[in-house]
Amino acid sequence: MKIAIGVLFIITYVLLLALPKIKGFISIGMAAIMTIIIVSLIQTTTRLDAFLTIVDSIQWNALMVIIGMMGLIEIFTKSGMPAYLADSLVLHSKSPKMAILLLAIFAGLISAITDNVATVLMVVPIALNICKKTNINPIAPIIAISISANLQGAATLVGDTTCIMLANHLNLSFSDFFFYQGRTGLFFVVEISAIIATVVLGLILPKYKGLKLPEIERTKVNYYYPTIILLVMLALLIAFSFIPIQNEVLESLIQGIIVMASMIVCFIINLIKTKSGNDTKDAVKNFDYTTILLLFGLFIIIGCVNTVGLIDDIGNVFVKMSGGNPFALYTILVFGSVLISAFIDNIPYVATMLPVISNIAVTMEFANPIVFYFGMLSGATLGGNITPIGASANITSLGILQKEGHIVKPFTFMKYSIPFTLTAVLCGYGLVWLFFGI
């Protein structure tokens, strides 16, 4: 049975890589097949226990946070506030290059609380407008915005799907990304890496000498309540990081409840304000149902793989590769994650690696296993920046450029992405080990 599940697991990854447009259905379908095989072949007396164990692997809190953020960010974007803030930055710039760098920095900062693709869709049109009015080739500016948006997704609990998954796996609170176990958290690792990588980005971007910024009017903010709700939501996530909850079920779902409640309140206010509720309808229509299905299926798949013992086997392989040396294992996890995520979706990769690292932590008995989790997450998040197909934000950005008549070759993209990403990776690699490995 273990061999059958292992073969199906490999087939799942191959299909996800080959057929990304239907990855949600692939995930659900393979999850159902694996579950049926395990329940059918296992001993009759333990079938129910095995099935409940597999179902228990579904991370409901993570799914609730992801769905809630999808709806909330959709209304937040339609409010015009992100575009207003981006326009304000441009108006305070002294040159086209400074405006582009500020937009890239802004894209990075806002992606710490919003989806990377949503960030790109907010900021890229503003950059395109500047490029058109100053006769600048938009390829370099748009690439800069895209890779910067990808970089800071790991800064907070709600910044990226993989962060939500990690938080749910380790029961991390929102504040744990800032300070964890009395030490500097992942937020500061990401931000320090972002600052240094942005300096490198500024050096490799064209100088655009002799060009002046065009006249730009600030985008009008249509309504302010999504911004207020978003801020209140973040405040509640921080507050409940310190408030003890006695009920075990409520404690495991509190983050999802806060985010979902924020989305529902936002939807209700939108219905009352607009009467038509078109923004709410669009938000529900534009939910990334593919990602939701993908995650739901992946949680079950990982539960199946774990049930038959494959997670233990994968963990033992990593331990043997490192020779039992914690720093060697950390290095393998970081740079292996970068390499793998450069070509495949980091969501299924992280879903697989979280339980693997749990097994490794038990096997090696390392003093602070969080270093392995943070190292893997930072590598997986940043790895997608290397290639044009490694992250959804990159694919979206290049798609927009293509519609504008600009075809971006892989070498052109990597001319900017590799120096930027390697700088961020090396910086994060050193800081995570400095903060948690020593």
Secondary structure: elements and pairs:
Elements: H1 2-18, H2 23-41, H3 47-56, H4 60-78, H5 81-91, H6 96-110, H7 116-134, H8 139-151, H9 161-170, E1 179-180, E2 183-184, H10 186-204, H11 225-239, H12 248-274, H13 278-285, H14 289-307, H15 310-322, H16 326-341, H17 346-364, H18 370-383, H19 392-403, H20 410-437
Antiparallel strand pairs: 1-2
Helix pairs in contact: 1-2, 2-3, 2-14, 3-14, 4-9, 4-11, 4-12, 4-13, 5-6, 6-7, 6-8, 6-10, 7-8, 7-19, 8-19, 8-20, 9-17, 10-20, 11-12, 14-17, 15-16, 15-17, 16-18, 16-20, 17-18, 18-20
How is this structure best summarized?
The protein is mostly helical and 438 residues long.
Describe the structure.
This protein is mainly alpha-helical and 438 residues long. The protein has one domain (2-437). The protein is 74% helix and 1% strand. The chain is built from 20 helices and two strands. The protein has a two-stranded antiparallel sheet. β1 and β2 (183-184) form a beta hairpin. α4 crosses α13 (278-285) and α8 (139-151) runs parallel beside α20 (410-437). It is globular.
